[in-house]
User: Fold this.
Amino acid sequence: MTAPKQTLEEILDLAAAHFKVPREKLTPDEDFFKTLGIDSLQALDLLTRLEHHFRIELPDYELQGVSDFRTLAERIQARL
Amino acid sequence: MESFRGQALSWELKDGVVELALHRAPCNEIGSLTLDELEQFVTVLDGLESVAHALIIYSEVKAGFCAGADLRELYRRSQEMERKDAAKGVRDYLERIHRVLNTIDASPLTTIAAVHGVTFGGGFELALVCDLIIADKMARFCFPELRLGLIPGFGGIPRLKRDLGNAVVRDLLLTGRSFNATKLQQVGLVSQVVAEGEAIRVARATSAQLGKFDRQTAIAAKRFIKPIPYEELKEEIDIFCELFVQPAVEAGLRKFAESEDAQPYLP
Assistant:
């Protein structure tokens, strides 16, 4: 089982690397659509990368209304 | 004619393989323009079958293979018509797309969908007519129609039923959730999952291998193992048209059409 804090850190690392945003600019409680500058299609791309990274299935309806990394990490943690 | 360059798609014949490339931004939405060019393509497909052994369908658009029907055009056109005319218009549109997809489905060529990114709704249905689906690991598949009060209308349900167990079909349709390529390989729908950007290369390598086999044997094998569910396909059009005139659909389409997001029903 990956610890919650580690899950959050791995999400932030992955998002920063893929969307080419400085890691220090990403904080757990900010709106990642705004911080990363992504639309719904890019959010879907992020979802697929997270599924591969954590080797989980994460139905997109679980992410409806989720826009901060902390809640995203909680949703992922619940499937690890 | 060995090549064609249209506004929504292009095709060319090379080394016995027909490559059909989709290239309409933002994500190859299938509206009247794409449908017109697909109809032109299937008209010449007959002639290509004597000089080719395989067909690859792929996308040159970065966002993905195809996001499905052009819902904004569908909504706009339905608003310009009387209710009964709109219902007839959507039936005509579905019957035209079914003729195209049924022709590709029944083609004696061995057909491969090389997909990446968004493969949604009608885009997923286009992939389903092919004999093999080769998917980039970042491809994502979904039937979001129920979110709009509809069912898939391009032959998706009968073809899913042909290829998959009913429980998986129910999951795809009734939840409307999207599946990644690995999941769809696990359930038996995707033939190969490949690294990012490699789907078209692997499809070409697969097509080269197919060219080594006796054509008549390959044609006989395909005809034997891949029945076309014509009756269910007609039934699907009827159900879609009945649902299309319901008020919930108009509301769903309006919400979609008025949003500036590419796929407003996504997270």
About this structure: The interface with chain B takes residues 39-41, 43-45, 47-49, 51-52, 57, 59-61, 63-66 of chain A (CB under 8 Å).
